[in-house]
Amino acid sequence: MNKKQLSIVIVLVVVGIIVGIKMHSPTPDKAPMDVHMGRSKGNPQAKVKIIEYIDFQCPACAFGVDFLKKFFNDHPNDIYIQVHYFPLTNMHRHAMTSALYSECASRQGKFWELDDLMIAQQSQWAQLISPDPVFQSMATQVGMNMDQLNTCLASNEARQVINDEKSAGQSLGISSTPTYFINGKMVVGTKSLQDELKTYFPS
């Protein structure tokens, strides 16, 4: 085999290796979903990053959500917020159900819209024996695909995400809601959140 033939063989082998790698590499649509993507908003490079652990039936959490929403609107480029689940199922009977609807909404890009309705109407649905009719109505109102929603609710995948996040929160020392991590520092309760944010935004 002369040098020219050898060069051709080497090129063909290299091309074959590259093609093989591409065939076996995950394509973007097959890549694992970032479960937090639908529950994040703001500038990922913001100077203040907030991770919020929440129970949607928790009254103190509702207060915290309202506060953060207003604060975010005042500082849209300086804050990045990510919501994690921490349902207090021993205290709130609809904690898991509300988290499930929220997680299924996040998979349709509707987390924040449903979150607004859930928090605004928390005092009403919290008293119901079953909040499902109300949550279904909210889902319709924000334009969710109902077939996809009900498939998501019936699967175990969303529930596993919620349980995993709660377990991760417990391993970090969380025992109540709302709990926040502001640039990695844990603060508990909305008053502590407000005080901590003042160190970044004094005026």
Q: What does this entry look like structurally?
A:
- With 203 residues, this protein is α+β, with helices and mostly antiparallel strands.
- It has 9 helices and 5 strands.
- The chain has helices at residues 3-24, 59-74, 95-106, 111-120, 122-125, 132-141, 146-154, 157-171, 190-200; strands spanning 40-42, 48-54, 79-85, 179-182, 185-188.
- It has a 5-stranded mixed beta sheet with strand order 1-3-2-4-5.
- Helix 2 (59-74) links the parallel strand 2 (48-54) and strand 3.
- The longest helix is centred in the first third of the chain and has 22 residues, at 3-24.
- The chain is globular, with a radius of gyration of 23 Å.
Keyphrases for this structure?
203 residues; alpha+beta; Glutaredoxin; five-stranded mixed β-sheet; 5 strands; 54% helix; globular
